[in-house]
Amino acid sequence: MAGETLPLSKRLRVPLSVRVQNGPLWRYLSTLVEGRAAKVALAVVLAVCLSLTQGIGLLLLLPLLQLIGLNMGQGTSSSVGRYASAAFAFVGLPLTLATVLGVYVVIMTLYFLLTRWQNNLSYAIQYDFGLELRQKLYDAIVGTNWLFFSRNRASTFTAALTYEVDRVSNGTQQIFQGLAGLLILFAYVVVAWLLSAVTATAVVICGFVLVFGLKSKISVSREHGKALSTDMRQLYGAVTEHLDGMKTVKSYGTQERNKARFSDLSTRVMKDYVGYVRNMNNTQALYNIGSLAVLAGAVIALIEVLHLPGAVVLVLLYLFFQIIPQFNSLQLTYQSTVNMLPIFANVVDIEERCKMEAEHEVAVSKAIALRRSLELRDVSFSYAADGQSAVKDVNLKIDAGEMTAIVGTSGAGKSTIADLLIGLIEPQEGAVLIDGVPLDAERLHAWRACIGYVPQDTFLFNDTVRANLMWAYPDATDDELHTALRMAAAEDFVSQLPEGMETVLGDRGVRLSGGEQQRLALARALLRKPSLLILDEATSNLDSENELRIQRAIEALHGGITILAITHRLSTIRNADVIYVIESGRVIETGDWNSLTAAGTGRFVELCKAQDALRTDDVGSA
Predict the structure, then answer these.
(1) What are the residues whose beta carbons fall under 8 Å from the beta carbon of 554, sequence distance 6 or more?
(2) Is the same domain home to 164 and 57?
(3) What are phi and psi of 121, to 5 degrees?
(4) Is the pLDDT of residue 335 over 60?
(5) Residue-wise pLDDT tens digits, 251-268
(6) Phi, psi at residue 34, to the nearest 5°?
(7) What are residue 375's phi and psi, to 5 degrees?
(8) Would the N or C end of the chain have less CB density within 10 A of its end CB?
(9) Is 472 helix (H, G, I), strand (E, B) or coil?
(10) Is residue 614 part of a domain?
(11) Nearest alpha-carbon partner for 127 in 160, 176, 179
(12) Is residue 104 part of a domain?
């Protein structure tokens, strides 16, 4: 199974190539290269060029030292000097101090220019990769079905889209830096090996011993990476919940409890970071101490054992002082990569799970006009496979041009029916029929294009009134905007805002009252000129005066568009053509207001009496 960790005994029987290809590193590299292979290849080529120019620059130090009178001795160092003379003669340059310095300056200038190019390219790849990860993840989240989305915390998606993608993007840059460092290390080693194969080999072996000797620290980094990713998701979740529920928090006086929870999560994240950094610093300290011992041994070997000339010793010491830190940099890069890979794996896992639960993608066809009726036929749906049905064997019909109402107590299944009619969820039994034709994946997006939906919990963007309205219909004219506002009884209060339709509403429309928010949401829905207008408890936050305005607005629409009202406020549906009473996910009564109340008994009558009693109690208490 994907993601399953095999026991060590079984893992050893799996070929290394298979283990690598199934691992997060292989997935990361294949994802990185996909779509940007040319840029990645160019970055690798530039890293190779950096190594070559650095190596040539180092080799030029040998004839340079000879020219200033230092003894290079015999052997490879002398041979390098002869090769340099031949190379200069080949291009027609005399081997003088000025020419060698001039060539050295040119080579190192090229090195610095290549470094700039390679850095710019690697940063471009880094941000392009981060953009791709973020966009693909966002597309997958938006494309998933509503049921899957609603069962997951929004903060999990938020953390993955922001913090986790940024961590992967930054890790990509470190990998490119590590690649360049590895190739430059190779150049250093080659030059050192030309001067003294024995000591160069010994230093390289010691470097690898130090790296592998601290391998246990890599496992610690991996665990810190997993813990940090988990705790950051929980912190994002807490922040989102606390800020969204701030009014309730203050009303209940539970600020201290929330602060304690936030502090606990923040402390855990801080400890994860500190643990990761401490592990990095401990590793570096141990490596530095080991490096000093290696360098001390190299000095003794060069001078006391090999008796190399002083100029060669100086060059080798310079090289060794460059080689050892490069091993350290490579190990730190590896630690950072190992720390990043669990985060990358989580981002990819979220994306894949969203794609597995994606709605069917089809070409958007022309909007469906509701001409005769919208119908639920023998529809059943349960949110849990082994749980109680939210709706069971529901049959209802919404005739075009009429107003249909669905009433019932909380939890009766009213909103589930609305979700079924919109196509947010699919019936597990039965069918949704539009003019007698089943609603399927091919017609889903076209159907939603002709729906105006006003939920109980209105969501407004932190933008102007105009932008909030035009979000539903970007091509709307000013006349259409004012008409929609007037139909929703919202034109008066919008005109009294400081800047009219250019007034910024604040986060979630905080500058408006609850009733004003719902009237603006109704205007936004009407701006689409929908075939079906769904009002899901759309008058729940309105006072009597505004409720009357909305009711009059709805009555004015009666006959022009098809209206489905889901409500507890029975006074708003007195003129509905058909009223369905829902109880425990079933339709138990059907009729218009007069037929349902004529007998003086029944569930609808009970609901009316309960609401009248509540209204009487409110008047009496006032």
Answers:
(1) 403, 535, 563, 565, 572
(2) yes
(3) -65, -40
(4) yes
(5) 556 567 767 777 787 788
(6) -60, 120
(7) -140, 140
(8) N
(9) coil
(10) yes
(11) 176
(12) yes
Residues 90 and 228 occupy one common structural domain: yes
Residues 6+ apart with CB under 8 A from 24: 341, 342, 344, 345
pLDDT for residue 275: 77
Alpha helices in 196-245 (DSSP H): 197-213, 215-244
pLDDT, mean of residues 185-214: 71
Are 358 and 142 in contact by the 8 Å Cβ rule? The answer is no
Element (H, E) at 325: helix 310-356
pLDDT digit string, tens, across residues 528-543:
888 888 888 776 666 6
**Cα 3 from Cα 23, distance rounded (Å):** 9
Q: How many separate domains does the chain show?
A: 3
Torsion of CA 413, 414, 415, 418, to 10 degrees: 120
Burial class for 86, CB neighbours closer than 10 Å (0-12, 13-18, 19+): exposed
Domain membership of residue 248 (yes or no) is no
186 shares a domain with 120: yes
Which residue in the block uniquely carries the two structure tokens 């004839």? 63
CATH code for the domain in which residue 489 is found: 3.40.50.300
DSSP state of 386: T
Amino acid at 390: A
pLDDT at 580: 92
Q: Are 140 and 194 in contact (CB under 8 A)?
A: no
58-85 burial: b if 16+ Cβ within 10 Å, else e: bbbbbbbbbbeebebbeebbbebbeebe
The answer on pLDDT for 399 being more than 70 is yes
DSSP lists the bridge partners of residue 395 as none
Find, among 340, 403, 407, the residue nearest to 165 by Cα.
Answer: 340
**Amino acid letter, residue 361:** E
Domain span at residue 139 reads 22-234+273-356
